[in-house]
Amino acid sequence: MPGLEQALAEIAAEMAQRTDRGDVAGYIPQLSKIDPMKFGMAAVTNEGQVILAGDADQPFSIQSVSKVFTLTLALGKVGDGLWRRVGREPSGNPFNSIIQLEHENGIPRNPFINAGAIVVSDVLLAGHQPREAIGEILRFIRSLADDDTIIIDREVAASERATGYRNFAAAHYMKSFDNIHHAPELALGVYFHHCAIAMSCRQLAMAGRFLANAGRSPASGHTVVSAERARRIAALMLTCGHYDGSGDFAFRVGIPAKSGVGGGILAIVPGVASLAVWSPGLNANGNSKLGSIALEKLARAMNWSVFAP
Ligand code: DON
After folding, report:
1. What is the pTM for the complete model shown?
2. How far is the CA of 278 from the centre of ligand 1 (A)?
3. Would the N or C end of the chain have less CB density within 10 A of its end CB?
4. CA-derived radius of gyration, the chain
5. What are the domain boundaries of the chain?
6. Which of 186, 192, 156 is nearest to 172 (CA)?
């Protein structure tokens, strides 16, 4: 694609120079050890071009980016019935906030805040042991990325389980409203493990291809979800993918994207490309600081936006 390779290289070179890199997530001990100087970016076009820059082949903890894939799987299992247990509105609150849960009877605002993703994990547990549900999520992501080397970082999962007090609180609180159907510890086990999946920018951009291509894998033509469902998942990414920073991200970047506290972002240019960026330092909303800036620059350079043709 004309200009894409050069744009990625220029942005990566510019990001390497920046000293204002944000702060790595301190509340998950394993993540606090990551080098904030890392920066990677990958673009996979619908035509099959793969363009990489910086540390694009180094795996990192995808954290909340995994929620795009667990949502996709849960919709495949229970369809629109999911929306009886999780909302579709931006929360306007931090990703780990629990204050809305009391007012809204244990129904989380959307599937991307922690509480919503824990309900999605509970849905994926139905009929399974946690180990099987985790295996199903990992197999799904491997098949999307066409890469069997993707693994779960057990130390990150254990680190989260040891310190995830707010997630425990949210899960138990939702259980009191009958919106968690299994033991909260089991739903949390699934949740902590999918957040601890490690992927590189290349693998993440590959896994996102179906969202950029109307629900189909551009390589095999295989249908992952319907075109309508792909549009809806992208709509949730745009409105809820950056928590209380979602409005600002839509304003600045203008394409659907989902962030994680590991510093990764998966972004979708519908009909054109799947993008992934990684820079571990976070802004005040817990989203990758340089990752957001890099996507803003790339979208501007390529004239990409869902708000204009
Ligand atoms: O539960 C948590 O807090 C993390 N496993 C995931 C949070 C996250 O990635 C929020 N993203 N910006």
Report:
1. 0.97
2. 15
3. C
4. 18
5. 4-62+200-302, 64-195
6. 186
